[in-house]
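Weekly modeling sync, notes
Attendees: S.R. (lead), two postdocs, one rotation student

Agenda item 3: backlog of single-chain predictions. S.R. asked that every request posted to the team notebook include the full sequence so nobody has to chase files. The rotation student volunteered to paste the first one in as an example of the format we agreed on. Action items at the bottom.

Example entry:
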Amino acid sequence: MVTSPKTLLIVEDNPADTAHYLRLLEDAEHDFSDIECVATINDAYQRLISTPPDCCLVDFNLPDGSALSLLEKLNQSEGKVVCPIIVITGQKDTETAVKLIQQGAQDYLVKQNLNSEVLIKGIQHTIEAWLMKQELNRLALHDVLTGLVNRALFLDRLNQLFKENKRHDRHFALLFIDLDRFKSVNDTFGHDAGDALLKSVSKRLLSLIRNIDTAARLGGDEFAVILPDISQANAHKVAEKIVSGLTMQLQWQNHQIEISPSIGLATYPSRAKDYEELMRDADYALYRAKENGRGQYSAFDEGMALEAQSLYQLATALPTALASNEFNLAFQPIFSLKSQKVVAVEALLRWNFNDQWIAPEKIIELVLEKRLGQEFHVWLFKRALEQFKEWQLTDPKLILTLNLPANLCHEKSIADQLLTTAETTGISAENLTIEVTETQLMIDPEESKQHLQYLADHGIHISIDNFGSGFSSMQYLANLPCCHLLKIDKQFFTDLDTHPRNAQMIEGLTALAHILGLKVVAEGIESEAELSQAKKLGCDFAQGYYLGAPVITNSSFDSFCNESKAMGDTLTQTK
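Predicted structure, as returned to the notebook:
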């Protein structure tokens, strides 16, 4: 129910007309507790911008201007009309009425037609229309779930602030905030829990910033905060405060949901030439915070500038590179230590951009950022499995290993794409292995277990890569029945000479893995001595430059093996 306003402003220079309006109001029921009268456009303007009334009646023609000039002045100075305004005209004029509405008047009334009922109904209609418009504007510019500013209003405010501060050389700061592992909350507890968490985080975020700051939800679990008129030192303090304040627990039914933020901070003045570049800087700083371990903030500095520029160039070029088939796959053999023959090949992503080889991890991050996961995996699976199909003609028992980050191979749609491609190319799922690094596996162990089980249920083998480099345990592997292979991190073999206890570690891990029914792969083998140790310590398979390096090839299987060995010999001889 709409509450009637309490304050009415009448703008009329003719005392007789003013008295007439007051009499009409006396003859009708209304809730105005205060009715104020002024006689000029200037007085009306000053009153409206100082303390806007709940409604304003203004005569069209006044000594110092017209109602149109008042509306135009409000739009120029305030950017909008500040309250419901009804214009009273001497005669009906459709053209004038259209101009008034275009400038922000809610309604207009013809003076000769006024009576108590017409006036009160006009006021009520005007106020209701105004309130409805304000609510629609609020919904259009605010996030429905959290009530925070939405992306559209955030971008507008940031753009305006950047322009003003550039002119006046003032300081401000921008924070980009992501909630760590938020996806697992939705997946584990459901979207109702996720929504409750977002609302709780938003409320807490507002309590951590000033009234002049802007907090926005940009989408999903992505938030942003604009900090106007703040020094760089104080911006750092606010970032620290938000990290601490948003590291929290939410009670959901019988569960405690833990959450923490990763924050990227960018300050101005800086190298940024516009607000979009400042946003990229904050986003890059956020990426660095996540890379450094999450639950912390990172500030963009000039040392990141070249790296950020390079990342931006990569992100811009990636869609074209994918569409133009500029990516390649290198293959590396995996040997059985028992038969000393190649039993598997690992496909490794390669992209040469501006004469530099881009790290596969970086490519995957950009694929995710650009939301090209589906297109990328269509290409990857088709390219890898078609090459593998040819090599299987030489050895039907050969295994293809795909080294994919956990956050990608866990996606059911990606897993289904792999199964579909395997069926299309006539390759059995039992000839495929998915590798997941230990570090990625432990980001969300329970979710990882569910998704990996889905792949294993369809016959695909699961390999844990770089085991020993992170914080997982044999106990976790014991509860992961879908796991088939364990790759011991190459650093254990590289440091055998300087760290004698590494041999004991390798032997112990291998024995425990065998008890769990897992085969063990020694990776990073770069010498005859390391290969001999891998055999002695009980490993089942081996991989490394000494046995064969990754090569990009379309050759036959035998030619591939020769190319790989020759490349590996070159690399190990130069060490």
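Discussion: group reviewed the output briefly. The chain has a mean pLDDT of 86.
Action items: rotation student to repeat for the remaining queue; S.R. to check formatting next week.
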